[in-house]
Automatic annotation (TrEMBL):
Virulence factor required for growth in low Mg(2+) medium and for intramacrophage survival. May be involved in regulating membrane potential by activating Na(+)/K(+)-ATPase. This is Protein MgtC. It comes from Roseibium aggregatum. Its main location: membrane. It comes from the Bacteria.
Length: 238
């Protein structure tokens, strides 16, 4: 029987330690995720860590260190596909990135345990849990901090509503006023929006602006003959 031939008490004990380590550490990571009510919670993180440990441990038994190294590379790519399944796009927002990254880290914990690097697996687990818990206050503080336009990177567009009969003068005034404010135009588009009216959209070269400077430019544009409205819009660059 192959089982009798392949069974080695020392190797079996080593596998028990590896898999049990992955199970316990995956439970610690997953418990925090379950508490936060994430889509990939306790059982998912345990199974990812345990599965990674089992594959790596089997590779060590069958093919040694070289085989384990190859399997680890497959685990990394395979868990990447699994993580993609928990990432969702809702409108302009992307959700689940942190959960996917945690699954990836759980697989790394399991791979360490399967390769018999138990201390490294424990250290990685502590760092993963710390990243998901201790950094939360810092994330909230950064998110709530007021953002100055001059320090943010975004796409800025100036919208001008002009009389079609004076479109060329409106475009020239748009270029002149924005250049005077030191905000050169990267691109400009014109669209007919109604009887005798055009909307001119100028995209600025700069990705960081002084809002007060541009507001003054908007006021100046509104005073140009043929321009009835001017406004500034911002959108994220990523």
């Amino acid at each position: 029987m192959l089982f009798v031939q392949n069974f080695n008490p020392a190797s079996f004990a080593d596998s028990v330690v590896s898999l049990l380590t992955a199970f316990v550490l995956g439970t610690l990571i997953g418990a925090e995720r379950q508490y936060r009510q994430r889509s990939a919670g306790l059982r998912t993180n345990v199974l990812v860590a345990l599965g990674a440990a089992a594959f790596v441990d089997l590779a060590v038994l069958v093919a040694g260190a070289d085989g384990a190294a190859r399997v680890i590379s497959y685990v990394v790519s395979g868990v990447g596909f699994l993580g993609a399944g928990v990432i969702m796009k809702e409108g302009g927002d992307v959700r689940g990135l942190n959960t996917a990254a945690t699954l990836w880290a759980s697989a790394a914990v399991g791979a360490c345990a399967g390769a018999d690097y138990v201390a490294e697996a424990v250290l990685l687990t502590v760092m993963v849990i710390a990243g998901n818990t201790l950094l939360r206050p810092l994330v909230k503080a950064i998110d709530r901090a007021p953002i100055r336009d001059a320090e943010s990177e975004a796409i800025y567009e100036v919208y001008v509503l002009a009389d079609s009969a004076r479109a060329s003068e409106a475009r020239e005034a748009l270029y002149t006023i924005l250049n005077k404010a030191r905000y050169p135009v990267a691109d400009i588009e014109t669209e007919v929006v109604g009887h005798g009216m055009l909307e001119i959209v100028a995209t600025l070269v700069s990705q960081s602006v002084d809002r007060e400077e541009l507001n003054r430019a908007m006021v100046e544009l509104k005073q140009v003959d043929g321009i009835s409205r001017a406004r500034l819009e911002m959108s994220t660059s990523e």
